């Protein structure tokens, strides 16, 4: 893709993409609620779609009780799927609790969207991804880890979670079998036998 095509793609107001909105820390859910109300009251459902606070469940133990609460993966940020029209951009920027967009140079410049791969990874981690990765490995197979701290290490798949599209791999580390957990299916390849 040429630079010209890339610039046209970024300026296309008819394409919905994900953007990151900066909020006051701890106000993410309030901003989400405010945005959802504004979408309804201003009738801009054709420009603003999903509004997401990236959270996952976390178990906290207090005394003898296990308490499940939501853990914010990106404090101070809300993800907004939208068409970057002037009206939608104005509505989001002027929502109470919003301090701006990430990826905007200021001075009236519209922000850059989040890359589709990055957003897919966040949605998958939250169990909200529509895309399913087709894999050629199963529990018990030998695989190679392609990225991260265990890059290029081989191990055996011990568990697979198709909902989050992650696997646990047992690798041999310092003479011991050690689990590498929650590795994305995209970051694993089957080793030819």
Summary keywords:
4 helices, four-stranded antiparallel sheet, 193 residues, elongated, five-stranded antiparallel sheet, 22% helix
Structure, described:
Helices cover 22% and strands 37% of the residues. The protein has four helices and eleven strands; from the N terminus they run αβαββββαβαβββββ. β8 (154-161) and β9 (166-173) form a beta hairpin. It has helices at 3-11, 28-42, 86-93, 116-125; strands spanning 16-23, 48-52, 55-62, 65-72, 77-83, 98-101, 142-145, 154-161, 166-173, 176-184, 188-190. With 193 residues, it is of the alpha+beta class. The chain is elongated. A five-stranded antiparallel sheet has the order 10-9-8-7-11, with no helix packed on it. A four-stranded antiparallel sheet has the order 2-5-1-6, with helices on one face. Strands 3-4 form a two-stranded antiparallel sheet.
Topology (elements, then pairings):
Elements: H1 3-11, E1 16-23, H2 28-42, E2 48-52, E3 55-62, E4 65-72, E5 77-83, H3 86-93, E6 98-101, H4 116-125, E7 142-145, E8 154-161, E9 166-173, E10 176-184, E11 188-190
Antiparallel strand pairs: 1-5, 1-6, 2-5, 3-4, 7-8, 7-11, 8-9, 9-10
């Amino acid at each position: 893709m040429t630079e010209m095509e890339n610039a046209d793609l970024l300026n296309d107001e008819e394409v919905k993409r994900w953007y990151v909105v900066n909020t006051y820390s701890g106000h993410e859910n309030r901003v989400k609620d405010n945005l959802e109300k504004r979408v309804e009251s201003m009738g801009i459902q054709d420009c603003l779609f999903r509004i997401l606070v990236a959270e996952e469940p976390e178990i906290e133990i207090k005394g003898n009780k296990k308490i499940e609460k939501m853990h914010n993966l990106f404090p101070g940020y809300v993800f907004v799927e939208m068409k970057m029209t002037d009206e939608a951009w104005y509505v989001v920027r002027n929502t109470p609790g919003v301090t701006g967009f990430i990826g905007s140079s200021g001075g009236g410049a519209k922000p850059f969207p989040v890359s589709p791969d990055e957003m897919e990874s966040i949605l998958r981690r939250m169990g909200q991804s529509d895309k399913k990765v087709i894999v050629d490995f199963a529990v018990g197979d030998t695989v190679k880890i392609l990225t991260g701290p265990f890059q290029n290490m081989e191990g055996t798949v011990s568990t697979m979670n198709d909902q989050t599209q992650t696997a646990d791999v047992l690798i041999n580390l310092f003479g011991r079998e050690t689990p590498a957990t929650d590795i994305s299916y995209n970051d694993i390849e089957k080793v030819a036998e």
